[in-house]
Amino acid sequence: MRKICIRVPVKMGERSRCVLLDHEILDPGYRIFSSDGYLYIPLIKEPSSIILDQLPECAEVKEQEFEKLNKKPTLEDLLGFVPQYEIVGDIAITESDPENENTVAEALLDVHPSIKTVIASVSPVEGEYRIRKYRIIKGRPTTETIHKEHGCRYFLDITKAYFTPRLSTERDRILSQISPGDVVVDMFAGIGPYSILIAKKSGAKKVVAIDKNPDAVVYLQRNVDLNRLYNVEVVESDAYDAADQYKNSADHVIMNLPHSAHEFLEPALRISKEGGIVHFYDIIHEDEMFEGSLRKIETACKRSNKSIQIRDHRIVRSYAPHQYNICIEFQVHGTEKPSA
């Protein structure tokens, strides 16, 4: 059957597949195949410009013949709809829906044999440590699991530390910018999905992983050990308080705390060495796009007597109706440039 698809070089296939999975437009009913050095990935619909921006520049939208898979019943086959859920390790997380949640849980366990526990979120991300409350619906009565991503393993309890697999593609994108010998400071490391990946895959000289949540730090240290890493320094501290200890040290500073990272821009500027790159995350309304975030950065630069050069700005994902999780990357220089 002819289907719309994405064509990318085979070596860029996994990254592209993850992007398409994150945006839920990869068609699982048809077989991905390679030909003449290219991978052809079938899609449910035409990709939006936002999705195309996250794919490799050489990605092309094509039409191609695909082989239909003989597959098990899908969630839509069993339920008549596709529920919202994400999988962390062997735990499936759904939204709280007392009327349907038992049926949904049974379908998830049937469709995904690797899932051992189904839970429902019963609160938004909240509090100083950005965690949610959950209720176990079916399966093994635990909220601890081991999640595998990009060849790394992460032991965590989702009730004690924030983690989302939806940033897998973004974490891989940041990894691609780190060079062997770099020093990286992850200001809000959590259980370590940025820090562990970078330490294991980039050849970084040192990764400083900071977090103030004591439970997250316990899992972070366990994940350093689990992945047999010796170039990670785990720091339990508020990033603001730790900044002076790492002043002018970092080639890259990661600020993945979107709702409040702007409060830590001045410490980030102190941590960055001359020419270092800051990866700043924010949540913005579609009416503002990047302007509001850029104003926050400019204000911090003036207070710190620093100048910057914007290297990139991009939408990472849709966060809520009319709101986006964005990343702005800028290079730090020593003193503010004089006005013209």
UniProtKB/TrEMBL annotation:
GO terms for cellular component: cytoplasm. The keyword Cell membrane does not apply. Signal peptide: none annotated. One of its GO terms (molecular function) is tRNA methyltransferase activity. Residues 85-334 form the SAM-dependent methyltransferase TRM5/TYW2-type domain. It comes from the Archaea. One of its GO terms (biological process) is tRNA N1-guanine methylation. Pfam families: TRM5-TYW2_MTfase (PF02475), Trm5_N (PF18093), TYW2_N_2 (PF25133). Keywords: Cytoplasm, Methyltransferase, S-adenosyl-L-methionine, Transferase, tRNA processing. This is SAM-dependent methyltransferase TRM5/TYW2-type domain-containing protein. It comes from Methanosalsum zhilinae (strain DSM 4017 / NBRC 107636 / OCM 62 / WeN5).
